[in-house]
Structure formats: C-alpha cells, structure tokens
Design goal:
Elements lengths: L2 H4 L3 H23 L7 E10 L2 H14 L3 E6 L5 E11 L2 H17 L3 E7 L2
Antiparallel strand pairs: 1-3, 1-4, 2-3
Helix pairs in contact: 2-4
C-alpha cells in the first residue's frame, strides 16, 4: 500500500477500487482499438460535487499546479462538474491507477469526487 493509499478515507477507498477495476477495462479497450501500452495519450477526466465553491476551488488549483485544461459546468440534476484534459498520460494500467489515486486525493481535498477518465480517439 502506498502512502497516498493509506491516506484515503472509506469513501475514497471505494472510489479507488472502482477506478482500478475500470482502468483495467479502459486500458484493454484502448489497446484493442489500436493504442499501444506506453503510448502517451490525452485523457479527458471529470470531477463532481454538489457544491459550486468546491468545484471552483479545485478548478483554480488544477489550473495553477498542473498543465491541465479545465472547464466547470452544472448538469441537469444540479450537480456541478469539472471537466478537463490531461496531456501525456502514459497508457499503462499502473500509471492510470497511480494517476487516478492522485486525482481522488486532490478531489477529496476540495470536497469533490473524481468521476473518471477516458481518451478521445
């Protein structure tokens, strides 16, 4: 267990386990559609929260700390969403798991849930 994993609360542990399962599926599907393990891809991702201020603060944090492109919006159910692009994600299950873990922790620091990721192709 990594240091970051040991910091997760129960809700974040459930999220992380779910993302690890999905990462395996996403990476396999991308490889079967022509990507190669180790390729650098541009990942689309999103966070969700019921609190606009949480999404806004996370939005500013990601823009300041990372080279991520982000956009905040509100969906039809009244939930706030932060969508973004992450360049240069190395397409391996291990890298995707470590990146998702980091995103879960960052989101949790701002009261937001990391919703997932995918690749445009």
């Amino acid at each position: 267990m990594s240091d970051l994993e040991s910091q997760l609360n129960d809700h974040e542990k459930v999220l992380y386990d779910s993302h690890k399962e999905m990462n395996s599926i996403v990476v396999s599907k991308l490889v079967s559609s022509g990507f190669k393990i180790g390729d650098e891809v541009e990942a689309e991702y999103y966070f969700i929260s019921d609190v606009l201020e949480s999404i806004s603060e996370l939005h500013h944090h990601l823009k300041e700390k990372y080279e991520y492109i982000t956009k905040a919006s509100k969906n039809s159910e009244g939930t706030f969403i932060l969508q973004g692009l992450r360049p240069n994600l190395t397409l391996t299950e291990d890298f995707a798991n470590r990146w998702c873990l980091n995103m879960i922790v960052i989101g949790g620091d701002f009261g937001c849930d990391f919703g997932g990721w995918g690749v445009r192709h």
